[in-house]
Amino acid sequence: MKVTVVGAGAVGASCAEYIAIKNFASEVVLLDIKEGFAEGKAMDLMQTASLNGFDTKITGVTDDYSKTANSDVCVITSGIPRKPGMTREELIGINAGIVKTVSSNLIENSPNTIIIVVSNPMDTMTYLVHKTTGLPKNRIIGMGGALDSARFKYRLAEALEAPISDVDGMVIGGHSDTGMVPLINKATRNSVNVSEFLSEERMQQVVEDTKVGGATLTKLLGTSAWYAPGAAVSGMVQAIACDTKKIFPCSALLEGEYGLNDLAIGVPCVLGANGIEKIVNISLNDAEKAKLSESAEGVKKTNGLLEL
Ligand SMILES: NC(=O)c1ccc[n+]([C@@H]2O[C@H](COP(=O)([O-])OP(=O)(O)OC[C@H]3O[C@@H](n4cnc5c(N)ncnc54)[C@H](O)[C@@H]3O)[C@@H](O)[C@H]2O)c1
Ligand SMILES: O=C(O)C[C@H](O)C(=O)O
């Protein structure tokens, strides 16, 4: 399994590190436009191999796509991150051009690859890759829900004063401060609905803290987060590499699923060797349906800013 990660910045390097530590890929190629940067990150990471016990070979290249040839999975993290006070949507002007060029270069060298889009605004960047590359819809996957669900579980565990391993929950919808839909009514502690343990007010607090998870970290760090994003991507790459058929909420192109069309937005997906093997249609209550369709309107508004 060969994986290319474009963008050797905070998220790209973290993603490469987690993929290597999990030891399921033979090769990770890190590519960046900044001269020598990916080479340096790759060398530093390779010097952790004997310490962390992995055999994955990590190489770094400066803008040389020939080295990415025949990658099974390509991850796009190239682009600018937001600063405190900004929304993800404000990044569209710079990141759309980067994502369009990068995805075209990747496919030219790896025509059978599966692409995971991370750059923000992620749902719109995923839609852009669908619109400009024409790859089958199962082979373009946006990463947002895996991260948002991890943050949801963190907040649930905090509220429940429970170990995270006891908690389950999922976030669907757009990967934005207002568009996320944490499915609080379906969240459980060891199979018991969390409403048995938490007041309505506390559950709403968990929902609101989850939705602004990225903004909260951006304010603390001065730039956006990377450890949990990198871990979330590595989990998705592993599901594809090892054909696990695990369910992750992913930004997928919808053609009627959930009553939505012509956008990419977070919905539960089975991930396996073929990328998105199935979009899982779970039943939503009326409030959840309304929130998902409101979120879809927000994503479509941002998509409307693309020059297609
Ligand atoms: N979807 C998510 O859940 C999620 C999570 C975290 C970050 N992000 C997004 O991921 C992106 C990267 O974040 P980061 O913190 O790693 O930023 P960063 O600035 O640390 O790294 C970005 C890297 O991209 C490189 N780059 C820019 N243009 C390029 C090009 N044309 N080709 C190759 N490389 C190029 C830069 O040189 C830089 O090293 C941002 O858009 C951020 O908003 C998304
Ligand atoms: O918050 C951001 O801008 C980065 C990313 O989308 C995140 O959720 O961490």
From TrEMBL:
InterPro entries: L-lactate/malate_DH, Lactate/malate_DH_C, Lactate/malate_DH_N, Lactate_DH/Glyco_Ohase_4_C, Malate_DH_type3, NAD(P)-bd_dom_sf. The active site is at 175 (proton acceptor). One of its GO terms (biological process) is tricarboxylic acid cycle. SUPFAM superfamilies: LDH C-terminal domain-like, NAD(P)-binding Rossmann-fold domains. Its EC number is 1.1.1.37. It comes from the Bacteria. Keywords: NAD, Oxidoreductase, Tricarboxylic acid cycle. Belongs to the LDH/MDH superfamily. MDH type 3 family. NCBIfam families: MalateDH_bact, PRK06223.1. This is Malate dehydrogenase. The gene is mdh.
